């Protein structure tokens, strides 16, 4: 197996799905200079991923399969959600893994970038966690709950609360932009406290319940399967591998897709990424 080159970047807790702000620049510690050669011809694939479970997914589940196909995988880890797409668009990356479809389309449209999805991958779902209650049914009237304060994750958090019968949302509300003002019924009179998404795991020390996005739960070493309930994730919230639109038909992209569709990839997911929500293509195959 050829060596997996790891290019370290400054790693911080990610501002969940925030579109604004400047990200930290990754720093190369080895390997070829960004954009120095045609990776497809050199059998090198330069992958970018958010630090944490998705860079782990590249290292543990994707790179080993690609290496068997004769590629060398160079991985750049990012501590933000802005630089990976910019690096992909300008050519210092060949593919990235950190975002879902809604974010990709919005970012590409806002920045006038030609980027496309290759395939959805298993994704850590948002979960309802508690140190006070052992089940949804045990949640008492007036319990305190911490929710993410950014619009994208708040919409998802309210969705999982509705999925589990704790609230109802006004009819006709856009599920992607729903906020606290759209709650029609708060069945348990939950006392809601908005919290920065990265702090939601710690919020469990002061709140009865916390709704935590999967990446922050995993960063805090939380067991996804310890959640009172996990999100039923629609396909547009599943993370994906993205490439430049012009590269979609290139052999290295087809090989990435083939690697992710392999049984070997799924076996690693089942063993090392327990609790991750699988995309429809994986759940429906025989």
Q: What order do the helices and strands follow?
A: EHEHEHEHEEEHEEEHEHEEHHH
Largest sheet: 6 strands, mixed
Number of helices: 10
Structure classification: alpha/beta
Fold-level CATH name of the largest domain: D-Maltodextrin-Binding Protein, domain 2
User: What portion of residues is helical?
Assistant: 25-40%
Count of extended strands: 13
CATH architecture identity of the largest domain: 3-Layer(aba) Sandwich
The average pLDDT is: 87
The proportion of residues in beta strands is 15-25%
Q: Uncertain segments of ≥5 residues (pLDDT<50)?
A: 1-40
Strand order of the largest sheet: 1-3-2-4-13-5
Descriptive report:
The protein has 286 residues and is of the alpha/beta class. It folds into two domains: 5-123 and 235-284, D-Maltodextrin-Binding Protein, domain 2; 127-230, Periplasmic binding protein-like II (D-Maltodextrin-Binding Protein, domain 2, 3-Layer(aba) Sandwich). 30% of the residues lie in helices and 21% in strands. The protein has helices at residues 39-42, 53-68, 83-90, 101-111, 151-163, 200-203, 214-219, 251-260, 263-272, 280-284, and strands at residues 5-7, 44-50, 72-78, 95-100, 115-120, 127-129, 144-148, 167-169, 183-186, 191-195, 209-212, 229-230, 239-244. The strands form three sheets. It has a six-stranded mixed sheet, sandwiched between helices. Helix 2 (53-68) links the parallel strand 2 (44-50) and strand 3. Helix 2 (53-68) packs across helix 8 and helix 2 packs antiparallel against helix 9. It is globular and about 60 Å long. The two termini are 29 Å apart. 42% of the residues are buried.
């Amino acid at each position: 197996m050829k060596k997996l080159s790891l290019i370290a970047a400054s790693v911080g807790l990610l501002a969940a799905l925030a579109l604004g702000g400047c990200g930290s620049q990754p720093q190369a510690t080895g390997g070829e200079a960004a954009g120095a050669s045609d990776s497809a011809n050199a059998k090198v694939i330069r992958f970018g991923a958010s630090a944490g479970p998705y860079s782990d997914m590249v290292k543990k589940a994707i790179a080993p399969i690609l290496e068997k196909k004769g590629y060398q995988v160079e991985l750049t880890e990012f501590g933000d959600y802005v630089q990976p797409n910019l690096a992909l668009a300008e050519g210092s990356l060949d593919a990235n893994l950190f975002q879902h479809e809604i974010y990709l389309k919005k970012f590409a449209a806002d920045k006038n970038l030609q980027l496309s999805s290759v395939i959805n991958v298993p994704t850590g779902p948002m979960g309802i966690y508690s140190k006070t209650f052992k089940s949804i049914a045990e949640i008492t009237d007036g319990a305190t709950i911490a929710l993410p304060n950014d619009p994208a994750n708040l919409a998802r958090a309210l969705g999982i609360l509705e999925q589990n019968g704790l609230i109802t949302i006004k009819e006709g509300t856009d599920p992607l932009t729903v906020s606290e003002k759209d709650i029609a019924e708060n069945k348990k009179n939950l006392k809601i406290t908005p919290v920065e998404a990265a702090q939601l795991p710690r919020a469990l020390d002061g709140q009865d319940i916390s709704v935590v996005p999967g990446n922050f739960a995993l960063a805090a070493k939380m067991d996804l399967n310890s959640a009172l309930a996990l999100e039923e994730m629609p396909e547009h919230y599943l993370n994906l591998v993205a490439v430049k639109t012009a590269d979609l038909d290139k052999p290295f992209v087809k090989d990435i897709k083939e690697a992710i569709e392999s049984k070997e990839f799924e076996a690693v997911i089942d063993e090392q990424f327990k609790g991750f929500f699988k995309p429809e293509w994986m759940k429906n195959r025989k």
